[in-house]
Design goal:
By secondary structure, the protein is α/β, with parallel strands linked by helices. 37% of the residues lie in helices and 20% in strands. It has nine helices and nine strands. The protein is globular.
């Protein structure tokens, strides 16, 4: 696993870290996931959660004040409470607070059963976890997902924020997302930030959480130094 920081512009500090799948030779998540056969998806999903918690418990200086964001695959979760057993055991073993864990699923993965996904989110919240939609605005369901359920956080996809400082259409779309999220009491995070211009434009639009190469690149089994944005 590699870790990339999430910056809180309001508090001017690190809000948390996303745990990202990486190969031992630095291969990206796509290359690693391509090697996972369908019958291995559940086990792989579980092992990634456990490894992320194990590493974060050693790396985070104060786990109670930072969020650990873990990706999960909705279609690999067959029964929410049963699938959380390994996560709960790992958190207990390493003394990692459940309220510091956020599970995010990518909108890029087509969700075959929204009722099943709603059940997953409900069970996770019951346990004290945060939930998030990753790659928001670039996947299969878009705003339709927010009609079915409301996560704690949405991460605006980098394809939407790229060049937002020079393109009015992108600013209008993000302004609409921020307005909708505020109405539903959902926190907004912009990911894939690569320039100061993008950061400034998004901050002006009311976004307060940021992630991207402009702040820090992911570090393999380590916490990279963060460039603060103020």
């Amino acid at each position: 696993m590699a870790f990339q920081p999430i910056y809180d512009a309001t508090a001017d500090r690190t809000w948390g870290y996303e745990a990202l799948v990486r190969g031992v030779n630095g291969e990206g998540a796509g290359a690693v996931l391509a090697q996972v056969r369908p019958e291995q998806r559940y086990r792989f999903d579980q092992e990634c959660r456990v490894k992320a918690i194990e590493l974060a418990s050693r790396l985070f200086p104060t786990p109670e004040s930072l969020k650990l964001s873990i990706n999960f695959m909705p279609n690999a979760v067959y029964e929410p409470s049963a699938c959380l057993r390994a996560t709960l055991r790992a958190a207990d073993l390493h003394g990692f607070p459940l309220t510091s864990i956020m599970f995010e699923f990518t909108e890029d993965e087509k969700v075959d059963d929204t009722e099943h996904l709603t059940g997953i989110i409900s069970e996770y919240r019951k346990r004290g976890f945060m939930t998030a939609i990753d790659d928001f605005g670039a996947g299969h369901a878009g705003l339709g997902l927010l009609v079915e359920f409301q996560p704690d956080l949405i991460k605006i996809d980098m394809a939407i924020v790229r060049g937002i400082d020079t393109e009015p259409a992108r600013r209008a779309v993000v302004a609409g997302i921020v307005h909708i999220a505020a109405s539903l009491d959902i926190t907004v995070l912009a990911e894939g930030i690569e320039t100061e211009g993008e950061y400034r434009a998004l901050k002006t639009l009311g976004v307060h959480l940021f992630q991207g190469y402009w702040f820090a690149r992911p570090a393999f089994e380590a916490l990279p130094e963060l460039r603060f944005g103020t």
